[in-house]
Design a protein that fits this description.
The protein is an alpha/beta fold. The chain is built from 12 helices and 9 strands. It catalyses: carbamoyl phosphate + L-ornithine = L-citrulline + phosphate + H(+).
Length: about 350
């Protein structure tokens, strides 16, 4: 019987695993900078407060909050007039990961302004939960909720603004370009809707150069644009498609939002030529990225080949809804004491 000779070579020492993230403890959490306030618009926070929220979002994505449950014992009502995949899932999962609880209320159950006065809904919810996220048709509904409830009201989408989405968008953009985005060209192409308005607000806060490219008659809200100009923002509103060229970020959204189905044919004709395709993506900056808040109506504002393009960060952007909204909820609700 023969035996196999042992090798005289020494085995290399195993490579140590990379250091993990520094985990927060209850004593190292940042102070909630928006404590008890409403978040109906990105302009409900200062540039410094936005920076803190974004830093928290990045920290959460790195896994540095796994050891803490800062919203333990708190509850958030999720009120939906409009259907949602990303908004519902990310706010619900986000509350769970922070130690809290979310309850989803459909329009059939609540009937804002139809089954029950908005003010009555607000005064009921504030006695049971610690915050409300509402995804509604009208900005005025959010304002009425905020005026009648002493707990934080979060805009999950309205006809005027979509501010929580923009937090995720800018987290995605910062992952590409870093924190200082001054002078970066953010080009939004398509309907001058709630997202276009919120892009203008974020341009005010971050110093980005925001360009809205839209057909005649579909420009963003005039008062939003005028306010941005008064504040010294770098804003361009144009119908010229060549403005897309050289963009650092190219962003689009659906042409036909929920509630606009009767205008579908008119809008498709008006927006012909404004579709984001791989050919259009070839004209933006070499390191530029493509964003879309989803859902995509393929064949209209974009095509599958664009969301799957090497410059696309669409699904990173969707993931960041979770992290950015967790950061927002922490800074709004993190100073609260459970009421039970």
């Amino acid at each position: 019987m023969t035996s196999r000779a042992r090798s005289s070579k020494k085995k290399a020492a195993p490579t140590p695993p990379p250091a993990g993230p520094t985990l927060h403890t209850p004593d190292t959490l940042p102070a909630p900078v928006l404590a008890g306030r409403d978040f109906l618009s990105n302009l409900d926070m200062t540039a410094a407060e936005l920076r803190t929220v974004m830093d928290t979002a990045h920290s959460m994505k790195r896994g540095e909050w796994r050891a803490v449950k800062p919203l333990n014992g708190l509850s958030l009502a999720l009120v939906f007039e409009k259907a949602s995949l990303r908004t519902r899932t990310t706010f619900d999962v986000g509350m769970y990961q922070l130690g809290g609880h979310a309850i989803t209320l459909s329009n059939q159950e609540v009937g804002l302004g139809t089954r029950e006065r908005v003010s009555d809904v607000a005064r009921n919810l504030e006695r049971w939960v610690d915050g409300v996220m509402a995804r509604v048709y009208l900005q005025g509904t959010l304002q009425e909720l905020a005026e009648n409830a002493e707990i934080p009201i979060i805009n999950g989408l309205s006809d005027m603004l979509h501010p929580a989405q923009l937090l995720a968008d800018y987290q995605t953009i910062e992952a590409e370009y870093g924190q200082d985005l001054r002078g970066k060209r953010i080009v939004y192409i398509g309907d001058g809707n709630n997202l276009a308005n919120s892009h203008i607000h974020m341009g005010i806060l971050t110093g980005t150069d925001v360009t809205i490219v839209t057909p005649v008659g579909y420009e963003p809200n005039a008062s939003v644009a005028m306010d941005a100009v008064k504040r010294g923002a770098n804003l361009t509103i144009t119908n010229d498609l060549s403005a897309v060229e050289g963009a650092d970020v190219l962003y689009t959204d659906v042409w036909i939002s929920m509630g606009m189905e009767a205008e579908a044919d008119i809008r498709r004709r008006a927006f012909r030529g404004y579709q984001v395709t791989p050919r259009m993506l070839d004209t933006i900056a070499g390191d530029g990225v493509f964003l879309h808040c989803l859902p995509a109506h393929y064949g209209e504002e974009t095509v599958p080949e664009a969301t799957e393009h090497r410059k696309s960060r669409v699904f990173d952007q969707a993931e960041n809804r979770l992290h950015a909204q967790k950061a927002l909820m922490y800074h709004l609700m993190g100073a609260m004491t459970p009421r039970w």
